[in-house]
Specification:
Blueprint lengths: L19 H14 L4 H23 L3 H17 L16 H5 L3 H7 L6 H9 L3 E3 L2 E2 L15 E3 L11 H19 L1
Antiparallel strand pairs: 1-2, 1-3
Helix pairs in contact: 2-3, 5-6
C-alpha cells in the first residue's frame, strides 16, 4: 500500500519532452482554461486514459462481472455529466480532454458567470469564496457532478456573496455597456 504521507503521482509525463505540436496544444489548453501548470493537463488526461482503458478492457469481456462493471462505469460517467443516460460503452472512447476540463469547478464557476475570467474563477476558489452543496471547495480541479452544477454559488461567509460587492457590480456595468454598443451599431 505504501506510506500514507508519501502520495503517488496521479499522472505520467510525456515520453518525449520536446514535441512542438504537443507543446503548442498544451500551451493553448493552459491559456484557455487558465491552468496553473502542465501537471493539471496531465492529471486530467491520465483520468481520461484510465476510463478509456477500462472501457476497452470491459468491451472485450462477456462475463456477469464485466456487465456489472460496464454498468457502474457508465453510471459514474453519467453522474459526472460526461455521457448522457442512453450512451453505450463505445461513447466512452470518443471522450476528449476538453470534456473533462469543462467539468472542473474552475470552468463551471466561469461558465455560470460568477467570475469574469478563468483566472479570476481560480482565485475565487482557492481563496474560499465558492461553495458546492453547502461545502466550501478550495480546489479548482474538483470535478463537479451533474447534479451539483446548480448548487455552485458564493459562500455566505464570503464578501463576494453581497450583490453590492465591487467585483459583482462591474460585471453588470460591463454587460450594460456592451448592450449599448450593440444598439448603436
Amino acid at each position: 500500500m505504501g506510506d500514507p504521507r508519501k502520495t503517488r503521482k496521479k499522472y505520467s509525463t510525456p515520453a518525449h519532452p520536446w514535441q512542438k505540436e504537443r507543446l503548442d496544444e498544451e500551451k493553448a489548453i493552459i491559456e484557455k482554461y487558465a491552468l496553473k501548470n502542465k501537471q493539471e493537463i496531465w492529471k486530467m488526461s491520465a483520468l481520461l486514459r484510465q476510463v478509456k482503458n477500462q472501457a476497452k478492457r470491459l468491451s472485450a469481456l462477456t462475463s456477469k462481472q464485466a456487465e456489472k462493471e460496464k454498468e457502474l462505469l457508465l453510471k459514474r460517467l453519467v453522474k459526472h455529466g460526461l455521457l448522457s443516460g442512453s450512451d453505450k460503452l463505445d461513447q466512452v472512447l470518443i471522450l476528449k480532454q476538453e470534456d473533462v476540463l469543462e467539468k472542473r469547478l474552475q470552468s463551471v464557476v466561469f461558465r455560470k458567470g460568477l467570475s469574469r475570467s478563468m483566472k479570476q474563477a481560480r482565485q475565487f476558489i482557492t481563496h474560499g469564496h465558492v461553495k458546492v452543496n453547502d461545502q466550501v471547495i478550495t480546489s479548482p480541479s474538483y470535478l463537479v457532478l451533474k447534479n451539483e452544477e446548480e448548487s455552485v454559488t458564493f459562500s455566505p461567509r464570503s464578501s463576494l456573496s453581497d450583490a453590492e460587492h465591487p467585483e459583482r457590480k462591474i460585471e453588470k456595468v460591463v454587460a450594460e455597456k456592451e448592450g449599448e454598443k450593440e444598439k448603436k451599431e
